[in-house]
Specification:
The chain is α+β, with helices and mostly antiparallel strands. The chain is built from two helices and ten strands, in the order ααββββββββββ.
C-alpha cells in the first residue's frame, strides 16, 4: 500500500507573510508622514510674544535699545539749572535789614508763594527813599527773573505805585564798577502781580531797588532766580 505524503501549501503561507509585511510598511509610512506634518506645522505657526526664550528676549531687548547721542567735540555741557535768591548759597552783601517776614495776612496765600522773599517799603522820609538789597554774582550768571507782588494793609492806599528796579554793577578794566539799570517793573499792584526779567551777564553784583508810594506796604518777590552762565 502506497503512502501519500501531503505537500505543504507554500502558496497560502507566503501570501500571509507578505500581507503582514505590507501592512507594517504602510503603518510605518503613515506614522512618518504624520510626524513630518506635525514638525512642519510647529515651524510654520508663529509663537506668541510670551513664548520667546530668555535668550531670544535678551537679544530683542538689546537690539531695541537706543544708541546714545554723541556729544559734539569741544562743546561744554549747557547748565540750565536755576538758583534762587532764597537758597543758602545767597546771602545779601548789603541790605539784609530791608528783608522781612511775609506779612501774616498774606502768608501762604495764592500769588504770594514760591521761593518768596519780602522787602519792606521805605518810609519815604529823608534818608530812606528806597530799600536796596545787593547780591554778589561775580560774573557767574546770565539772567535774573522774578515776579513782583506788592501788598498794602487794609485801610491804606491800595492804588499806590510800586517800582522794583534791577541794577547790575559791571567791573571795569581799572577795577572800578559801573552801575546801570538792567530791568524794572512799574505796573504791579496788590491785585496784579507782574514779572521782571533782566540780563545780568558779566555782572559783578545785582542790586534790587524798591520804591513804594505807600510806606506801609511790603513788596513780595516770588521765584526770584538766577540762570548760571
Amino acid at each position: 500500500m502506497d503512502t501519500v505524503t501531503p505537500t505543504p501549501n507554500t502558496t497560502g503561507g507566503g501570501r500571509r507573510r507578505w500581507d503582514a509585511g505590507i501592512r507594517a510598511g504602510v503603518i510605518s509610512a503613515i506614522v512618518g508622514v504624520l510626524a513630518l506634518v506635525v514638525a512642519l506645522l510647529t515651524w510654520l505657526v508663529p509663537r506668541e510674544p510670551g513664548d520667546e526664550s530668555p535668550a531670544n528676549a535678551q537679544v530683542t531687548a538689546v537690539s531695541q535699545a537706543p544708541e546714545p547721542t554723541p556729544q559734539s567735540a569741544g562743546q561744554p555741557p549747557v547748565n540750565t539749572a536755576t538758583v534762587y535768591l532764597t537758597s543758602d548759597q545767597f546771602q545779601p552783601e548789603s541790605g539784609a535789614d530791608d528783608l522781612m517776614p511775609v506779612p501774616r495776612a498774606i502768608k501762604g496765600k495764592a500769588g504770594y508763594t514760591g521761593h518768596e522773599m519780602a522787602v519792606r517799603c521805605p518810609t519815604n522820609e529823608t534818608g530812606d527813599p528806597t530799600s536796596e538789597i545787593t547780591y554778589l554774582l561775580q560774573g557767574r550768571y546770565v539772567q535774573f527773573d522774578v515776579t513782583v507782588h506788592p501788598y498794602f494793609p487794609a485801610r491804606t492806599d491800595q492804588q499806590a505805585v510800586t517800582f522794583v528796579t534791577a541794577l547790575i554793577a559791571v567791573r571795569r578794566n581799572d577795577g572800578g564798577l559801573d552801575t546801570r539799570i538792567a530791568g524794572d517793573q512799574k505796573t504791579s499792584g496788590p491785585n496784579r502781580p507782574a514779572g521782571l526779567s533782566a540780563s545780568v551777564e558779566g555782572a559783578e553784583k545785582l542790586i534790587l531797588r524798591i520804591e513804594c508810594g505807600n510806606p506801609n506796604g511790603t513788596v513780595v518777590l516770588t521765584e526770584a532766580r538766577l540762570t548760571p552762565a
